[in-house]
Specification:
Order of helices and strands: HEHEEH
Mean pLDDT: 95
Shape: globular
Distance between the termini: 37 Å
Strand content: 15-25%
Oligomer: single chain
Number of strands: 3
């Protein structure tokens, strides 16, 4: 399970990069996706939830102002199809809000 989780994290980070999002490789099962603006992060999170993808927005005071982010928490049981679908949706929504 640990190996599968590590593989999922690597796959998800690479999928986000392929979608044009600048994410760093994550050493844990939590993958931060920096959005910047707090309202924008909330909007992306809400739109993802409407699509059945639960990725909460993390904003000030948990992180510095202007550093709001999405916090994707991965599991070993996620499939690559699910991870790719989420990565594509995140990118589409972020780009549509720009």
């Amino acid at each position: 399970r640990v190996r599968q989780l590590q593989d999922n994290v690597k796959f998800f980070c690479e999928a986000l990069k392929r979608e044009g999002l600048g994410v760093q490789p994550s050493p844990s099962a939590i993958v931060p996706i920096v959005v910047g603006d707090e309202a924008r992060a909330l909007e992306v999170s809400a739109t993802l939830q409407e699509r059945g993808i639960l990725i909460p927005a993390i904003r000030y005071p948990t992180v510095a102002r202007g550093q709001a982010r999405l916090r994707a928490s991965l599991m070993a049981t996620h499939t690559q199809d699910e991870l790719q679908t989420a990565a594509t949706a995140i990118a589409q929504i972020i780009k549509s809000i720009d």
